[in-house]
Specification:
Distance between the termini: 18 Å
CATH topology of the largest domain: Rossmann fold
Radius of gyration: 23 Å
Helix content: 25-40%
Number of helices: 11
Strand order of the largest sheet: 5-6-7-3-8-9
Structural class: alpha/beta
Number of strands: 13
Shape: elongated
Oligomer: single chain
CATH superfamily of the largest domain: P-loop containing nucleotide triphosphate hydrolases
Length: 320
């Protein structure tokens, strides 16, 4: 497990992470969510010994990362901070990582095949596209066949096929009983892959719960109605206490009334229905609602995550 307890980090007068406590358990994909500047990258860097906390602790399997012998065999990490040397080939980059952690050379070939870079093994990293570089970062994270994965924005630069491949990979690794922590701003993708969510804002915990519970607890169910008489039906719905709102394509999203009740009113008023469907709201909608409530509607503190800024340019990655 990854145990974060009362983790705190300050940069000058700004508290980037304040008293953060949560546990990432094996056998599930845990989504780590929060707006820019929420402290996600700083938290991950403290987990991996790259940033020293001012208070609290982060332990992996009961030990700080700095105490792990041959860490790549315990934790596979991908953080957006720095890139491999551009003059190295993909194979050579992985070979020196493998040698430094006493990992068999044959494992390099295996992970290159896993991430789809077998044919590019002898190409220099400097010739790689952003997506290829991201796959190489994932290969490094998988190199030690670790029981724990910590991935910061791993889908950056991947195309649709690559995103689907990564989703299947993460799900399969969780099914094997590994601990998987993933941060992402792509809510639609996170809704497909995560079993559990840890949501933070301004360095403080807003939610630590299962995906289904998060959606049920914070969701605002609504009924989508599509009819050629949208304006007339909308007035009737309001008269009966519902709250309809028009979508950009002319449908009505109705809160406060069931689909059966809407169907009855539409029939009584002679309004044909082309669509009548019940929705719980998307993860993106619910996430924005929770973030807004947690920050008083103001979102994250401006300026971005100082921990990320200190690490280097966005879009690069490092393998710890």
């Amino acid at each position: 497990m990854i145990d974060v307890e009362d983790l705190t980090k300050r940069y000058g007068p700004a508290t980037v992470v304040g008293g953060l406590t949560f546990t990432v358990r094996p056998g599930a994909v845990t989504g780590f969510l929060g707006p820019n500047g929420a402290g996600k990258s700083t938290t991950m860097r403290m987990m991996l010994g790259l940033t020293r906390p001012d208070a609290g602790s982060a332990r992996i399997g009961g030990r700080p990362y700095s105490e792990l012998t041959h860490p790549l065999r315990h934790v596979g990490a991908l953080l957006e901070t720095s890139a491999p040397h551009r003059g190295l080939t993909a194979r050579d980059h992985l070979l020196w990582l493998a040698r430094s952690n006493r990992i068999a050379r044959g494992r390099v070939r295996e992970v290159l095949e896993t991430v789809g870079l077998a044919d590019a093994a002898r190409r220099r990293v400097g010739t790689f596209s952003l997506g290829m570089g991201q796959r190489l970062g994932l290969a490094a994270a998988l190199l030690g066949d670790p029981p724990v994965l910590v991935l910061d924005e791993p889908v950056n630069g991947l195309d649709t096929e690559g995103i689907r491949w990564l989703r299947d990979l993460l799900r399969s690794m969780a099914a094997e009983g590994r601990t998987v922590l993933v941060s992402s701003h792509l809510m639609a993708e996170m809704s497909r892959v995560a079993d559990h969510l840890v949501v933070i804002s301004r360095g403080r915990l807003l939610a630590d719960t299962g995906m289904a519970d998060f959606m049920q607890r914070h969701g605002r169910p609504y009924v989508r109605v599509r009819t050629p008489h949208a304006e007339r039906l909308g007035r009737e719905l309001e008269r009966h206490g519902a709250t309809p709102s028009r979508t950009p394509d002319g449908a009505l999203d109705v809160v406060g009334m069931t689909a059966a009740e809407i169907s009855r009113l539409a029939a009584e008023g002679g309004s044909p229905l082309h669509e009548l469907s019940t929705h719980a709201g998307s993860l993106e909608e619910i996430y924005l609602q929770v973030i807004g409530e947690g920050t008083g509607g103001g979102g994250a503190a401006g300026g971005g995550d100082p921990g990320r800024a200190a690490g280097g340019r966005e879009g690069r990655n490092t393998h710890v």
